[in-house]
Amino acid sequence: xxxxxxxxxxxxxxPSVLAAQPRFARATTIGNVDSIWSPTLKEQRPxxxxxxxxxxxxxxxPQRYPVLYLLDGDAHFHSVSGLVQILATGVNGTxxxxxxxxxxxxxxxxxxDMSPTRATVGPDGKPWPNAEGTGGMPAFxxxxxxxxxxxxxxxxxxxxxxxxxxxxxxxxxxxxALYTMPDVFxxxxxxxxxxxxxxxxxxxxxxxxxxxxPYNKRVLYVAQANTLNPDEVTTGAHYSGITQFNALMQxxxxxxxxxxxxxxxxxxxxxxxxxxEYDALRFIFDGYKVNMQRVLQSPRSLLQHYQQVSDKxxxxxxxxxxxxxxxxxxxxxxxxxxxxAEMATELYPMSYHAWNRFGILAAARGDKLKxxxxxxxxxxxxxxxxxxxxxxxxxxxxxx
Length: 400
Prior knowledge:
By secondary structure, the chain is an alpha/beta fold. The protein has helices at residues 3-17, 73-88, 110-113, 137-155, 169-180, 197-211, 235-252, 272-284, 292-297, 301-313, 321-330, 334-347, 352-364, 368-381, 386-396, and strands at 32-38, 43-50, 65-71, 101-105, 158-167, 187-191, 218-225, 257-264. An 8-stranded mixed β-sheet has the order 1-2-4-3-5-6-7-8, with helices on both faces. The two termini are 35 Å apart.
């Protein structure tokens, strides 16, 4: 089957296959607001939570999800949750990244929380009296690591893969998190980071920080906007700081760290986050997207694909139950469809829906024994399952 034909089939089938998921009710509700008292920061900290549609889909088995932590959450929650929704949930057959929970952290005192040191000079090198009260980033990162992450992990079904995204001052927060707690997140995204801060203190630390320890299977993505505006006195230091950081990375690298950098010539400091967020997610999960042609020809290759993804990312990933259903719907070969359904029962043995699909396909192929066994497993997983009861009555009928 030609790839272009597959794309068109996916676009046509995906909406109907996924229609059973409770998506429409969520269309006007992007996420929830929660908060946590922080003993470290001595304040109540709000946060916004996006969960993918499958999180509360009762027709599939409960799954665990990677978590994306987002700074300046009040500004970027809509864009990032929207990107995750489009890229991860199978809309038009797109499973380019895994479904994720998004935790967006709004600001209470941005200058305090996202500054690594108490600055004495501004980006122009002159005394900066307005910087009083800065330098709270160590405490802020401690709050995220010791308080927020444990809270999220205790309330939500998370898996041990975390992404950390920050823009501007949030960008240097992401870089400092990589420096100081590289084991907390798996991927770090610094969008147009303010590396000029306090006489370029983080830039000066870069070589030592990045060459004295391994960063096993960690990812760093750095985006740079076009801030070369002669009318702004701060742009020279901002632009050159990022350029110098990239040069250090290119020269010295960091053991085990997968790194990418992109310069966005047509974007300024304010417009770059959206496109950089997209590119960063695609880079972090490069290779995650399945080759549909290969899957339909050899369904079991899907398991090999996700094993390679898991090895690359350093965390366990498997095909979602919804994706297996979609691939099975696209498969014109009944053997491939049956194999994909069987894989769903292997990966999600408590899913009554997966056993129903497998039973229906087995019955259609005339395998009465497998079909009956599947529907019995489906009833065991969910005793009030009307589909399985009806199918078993048919299979046990004297006419069959």
